[in-house]
Amino acid sequence: MGVARTPRERWVEEGLRALADGGPDAVRIEVLAKRLGVTKGGFYGYFADRDALLEAMLDTWQRECTDEVIEQVEREGGDPRTKARRAGKLTFSDDRLLPIDLAVRDWARRDEAVAERLRRVDNRRMELLREMFGTFCPDPDEVEARSLIAFCVAIGHHSLAADHQGRSRTDVLARAAALVMDCPRDA
Length: 187
Description:
It is a single chain. The protein is an all-alpha fold and 187 residues long. Helix content is 68%, strand content 0%. The chain contains 8 helices and no strands. Helix 1 (8-22) packs across helix 3 (50-76), helix 4 runs antiparallel to helix 6 and helix 6 packs across helix 7 (140-156).
């Protein structure tokens, strides 16, 4: 009887953990094999090289943070405001997706192919926001501005180190969300 191989998904998942922890330079086959408790030989049964693993990691990240988030948002339902909040929470409050997303953003600053992938993901996310905001805000210019503000707050607040003059970050974020989501019905 042969020894069971480490599944491809475990290599990808461990690669994503390494990416989140230390960026793309931390994604090394030998290191991943050690973390998985296996030899690196099994890696080559699934991937031609490290670049193939990196591509598979980006594919997984893209699918999970767009397709799977959108599917869950639609499955759980609710009004457009609830759906927009849920999409942001699933993507940018998640202990798993958020660190990967931030690592991909950093990586994209140095790699044009990753930057193009990030652009596609962000465009898909913005389209979802436009769709949601467009259901209760009739002005296309305002929809675009609100979508941009919501997206920037969702991503940027993780990098902000400022205090909020006696307010909690959670309270300030809730107020920011209320401001972005509040569009007069007769505007």
